Amino acid sequence: MKMVMGYIAGLLFGLGLAISGMTDPARVLGFLDIAGAWDPTLMFVLGGAVVTSFIGYRLVFKRSGPLFGERFQLPTKKDLDAKLLGGAALFGIGWGLSGYCPGPAIASVSGLTIPLAAMLIAMVVGWFAARIVTR
Question: Which InterPro entries would you find in this protein's record (predicted)?
């Protein structure tokens, strides 16, 4: 059941990205273009996500445990280190150059283009490189 719920959550996430237009890299790049033709759409999508998460976490943590799991799994590491900051910087650079972050990129696979394919290949290479570097 846990796997089914994960699939449903991913499907809802992808659907939300598609409906909000966040699978279009031009929207993301338009948001980052604050000196030109700025597109605030991403700000509203992110704001909606923050509000939803804020309310959702408060409702969920009133429960004694998750519906489809033994216990809540929360990150325990709280320090900022070079790996975290470097990864965040690489993520931001890739996002700014391509207009895609991993979620929208995967949700956009059905309309595969050369730039999207290049981003996905770079993302997979990055996963393997991170495993080698962090050993």
Answer: DUF6691
